[in-house]
């Protein structure tokens, strides 16, 4: 009996309860998300109504402690949500909001900050972003120039951030800023400061026009003598870099999850198309070249899924998986880009048409080898942790 891609790539991590949740969430996505993707792509962001709807259904920050309105669910529920949105090409920054930014508040926030912000993160009333990248400081976080000068009970922020996912939609932006300009090494002078939308001196300059991921906004942000209460600092002063290093493990794991899910969907679609499309009197899938390409991609996807599952399990056990996460982030991201290229080629001219999802996937997945740390930075981390 032939093996299907679905059985070949089936994860070993999920229980029956997880699978039931996936089925329910997939129905929600097909009903509430898929029909509206073209409109969100055209608008350059998803509407607040979607975030509210997801919050009502418990699909935002499901891991948050019930004390703050969450379900206290394990990380696999987040992985399911991230996978299912990625599989339909829904470029909504849910993973960023729920699994990248909110954990900073949960891990390093004061009880007052958690009570003030986390329930609204869960409900969809408070959308999050994190502002690291600057025009002259991308992967090199030590080069951050945005300054936060202490003035009594406030910080005065001055600086510019760029490529900030969800920056236009966000109600609260965690800004990485320099609080000690004399610190040596430089990374010891960084802090995390939460800035609320509408704060005088905080300007959302523009929604950037980019190659792909059109359904989520990506902003340029400006801070000009922006006064923020010291009470909005997340964690201790000058320990921001340490907090970033601790949380980037999960951020990069999430990126690998998104890349894997998108690649699996692209191959499923390409196989279905190649079986149906006839050229020279026979299905495209019957040509040896097509079969070899599909076999190669299926092999890489199976390897990616096995590695990713093991990595998720280790992360959930609380292990230090920075080296393996860095491997997964770059390799699965690059693999997804190879899959996008070959799947579009299997579609022929139709793959270049916007009506076919592969065209959008092809654009969108390119982002995955850059965001959250470039492929080159991931290789540098691996080399350093191997003692090179």
Automatic annotation (TrEMBL):
Residues 15-125 form the Acyl-CoA dehydrogenase/oxidase N-terminal domain. Residues 129-226 form the Acyl-CoA oxidase/dehydrogenase middle domain. Pfam families: Acyl-CoA_dh_1 (PF00441), Acyl-CoA_dh_M (PF02770), Acyl-CoA_dh_N (PF02771). InterPro entries: Acyl-CoA_dehydrogenase, Acyl-CoA_DH_CS, Acyl-CoA_Oxase/DH_mid-dom, Acyl-CoA_Oxase/DH_mid-dom_sf, AcylCo_DH-like_C, AcylCo_DH/oxidase_C, AcylCoA_DH/ox_N, AcylCoA_DH/ox_N_sf. One of its GO terms (cellular component) is cytoplasm. Transmembrane segments: none annotated. GO terms for molecular function: acyl-CoA dehydrogenase activity; flavin adenine dinucleotide binding. Catalyzes the dehydrogenation at the alpha-beta position of ACP-bound acyl chains. This results in the introduction of a double bond in the lipidic chain, which is further transferred to the epsilon-amino group of lysine residue in the mycobactin core by MbtK. This is Acyl-[acyl-carrier-protein] dehydrogenase MbtN.
């Amino acid at each position: 009996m032939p093996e299907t891609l679905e059985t070949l790539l089936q994860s070993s991590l999920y229980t029956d309860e997880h699978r039931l949740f996936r089925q329910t969430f997939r129905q929600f996505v097909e009903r509430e998300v898929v029909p509206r993707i073209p409109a969100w792509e055209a608008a350059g962001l998803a509407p607040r109504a979607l975030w509210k709807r997801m919050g009502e259904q418990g699909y935002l920050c499901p891991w948050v402690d019930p004390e703050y309105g969450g379900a206290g669910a394990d990380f696999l529920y987040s992985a399911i949500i991230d996978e299912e949105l990625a599989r339909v090409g829904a470029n909504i920054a849910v993973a960023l909001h729920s699994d990248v930014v909110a954990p900073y508040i949960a891990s390093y926030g004061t009880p007052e900050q958690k009570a003030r912000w986390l329930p609204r993160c869960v409900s969809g009333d408070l959308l999050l972003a994190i502002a690291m990248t600057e025009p002259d400081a991308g992967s090199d976080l030590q080069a951050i120039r945005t300054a936060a000068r202490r003035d009594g009970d406030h910080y005065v922020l001055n600086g510019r951030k760029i490529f900030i996912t969800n920056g236009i939609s966000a109600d609260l932006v965690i800004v990485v800023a320099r609080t000690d300009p004399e610190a040596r090494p430089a990374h010891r002078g960084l802090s995390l400061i939460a800035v609320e939308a509408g704060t005088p001196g905080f300007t959302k300059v523009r929604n950037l026009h980019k190659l792909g991921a059109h359904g989520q906004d990506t902003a340029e942000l400006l801070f000009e003598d922006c006064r923020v209460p010291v009470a909005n600092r997340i964690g201790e002063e000058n320990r921001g870099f340490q907090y970033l290093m601790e949380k980037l493990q999960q951020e990069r794991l999430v990126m690998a999850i998104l890349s894997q899910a998108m690649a699996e969907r692209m191959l499923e679609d390409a196989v279905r198309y190649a079986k149906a499309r006839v050229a020279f009197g026979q299905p495209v899938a019957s040509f040896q070249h097509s079969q070899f390409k599909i076999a190669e991609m299926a092999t890489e996807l199976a390897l990616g899924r096995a590695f990713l599952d093991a990595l998720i399990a280790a992360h959930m056990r609380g292990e230090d998986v920075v080296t393996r996460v860095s491997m997964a982030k770059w390799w699965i991201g690059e693999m997804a880009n190879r899959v996008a290229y070959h799947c579009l080629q299997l579609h022929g001219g139709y793959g270049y048409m916007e009506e076919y999802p592969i065209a959008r996937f092809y654009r969108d997945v390119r982002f995955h080898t850059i965001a959250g740390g470039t492929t080159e930075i991931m290789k540098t981390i691996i080399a350093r942790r191997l003692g090179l």
